[in-house]
Automatic annotation (TrEMBL):
It comes from the Bacteria. This is Metallo-beta-lactamase family protein. It comes from Teredinibacter turnerae (strain ATCC 39867 / T7901). It holds the Pfam family ODP. Residues 29-218 form the Metallo-beta-lactamase domain. InterPro entries: Metallo-B-lactamas, ODP_dom, RibonucZ/Hydroxyglut_hydro.
Length: 248
């Protein structure tokens, strides 16, 4: 599994984990992210159960396991959080921050030791050693209770399924040619994002943030001007198109 440091300052670091060549062939590739401060670490969308051993092995190279005191799940999908039951056995003092709406579903993955902190619909801010991490509402993109993570100091937005692309192995970590990358994103966003109203609300909200990197949980990272290119493209895209294919 690849480990990539994507931000480093005196206060904290961001890491990306993914592109695991040993993952089962029919399992979609996912990006996992971690923020490390002096005394804490926040592990975001830590992955499916089949990735747990690779994730644990790579995470502990960057931070002692006892320093992982916070987990985040953007929503309830198994590709990002079905490993919860195994993290529950590995961590002694951790809290899962996730949409309040999904608590009863997330507990099916196993959560006896990890504490649950439901994120209210409007979101909230988590303080990690003086670093303010914001949980930004992203409802219906694609889950009815959904959040993204924004770090104003690092200017990074972890954007969940927004910006995702399902690609073959060996692709670059960052978007290089935006127009070419659109071909890999269009169908995914049209099918998985159900609401144009929710989409446009999110674009308006996120456009007010100062973002250098937008990091989805599938595919490549958007940097620099490609962040605005994505927001402009997504705002114009019609989503929820699957209903048009149904024969009434």
């Amino acid at each position: 599994m690849l480990t990539k440091e994507i931000y480093n300052s005196a206060s904290h670091q961001w890491f990306m984990f993914g592109r695991d060549p040993e993952k089962p062939e029919r399992i979609i590739d996912t990006n996992q992210f971690m923020i490390k401060t002096k005394a804490h670490a926040l592990l975001m969308d830590p992955g499916g159960i089949e990735l747990f051993s690779a994730m644990l092995a790579n995470v502990v190279k960057q931070v002692p396991v006892e320093q992982i005191t916070h987990l985040f799940a953007s929503h309830q999908d198994p590709d990002i959080i079905s490993s919860l039951g195994l993290w529950d056995r590995a961590l002694d003092n951790a809290t899962l921050h996730a949409p309040w709406l999904w608590e009863g579903f997330l507990r099916h993955f196993g959560m006896n030791t990890i504490k649950f902190h439901g994120i209210p619909d409007e979101g909230y801010t988590l303080n990690l050693d003086g670093v303010s991490i914001q949980f930004i509402p992203a409802h219906y993109l694609h889950a009815s209770g959904n959040f993204h993570v924004y770090d104003p100091r690092a200017k990074i937005l972890m954007s969940g399924d927004v910006g995702a692309a399902l690609e073959p192995p060996g692709m670059p970590l960052e978007v290089e040619n935006f127009e070419e990358h659109v071909k890999l994103m269009t169908l995914f966003h049209q099918r998985w994002m159900p609401s144009n109203t929710a989409k446009n609300d999110w674009v308006e909200r996120v456009s007010k943030l100062n973002i250098d990197k937008m990091c989805p949980q599938h595919g490549r990272i958007f940097t620099g001007d490609n962040v605005k290119r994505f927001l402009d493209w997504f705002h114009k895209l019609e989503v929820g198109t699957a209903i048009k294919t149904v024969d009434h």
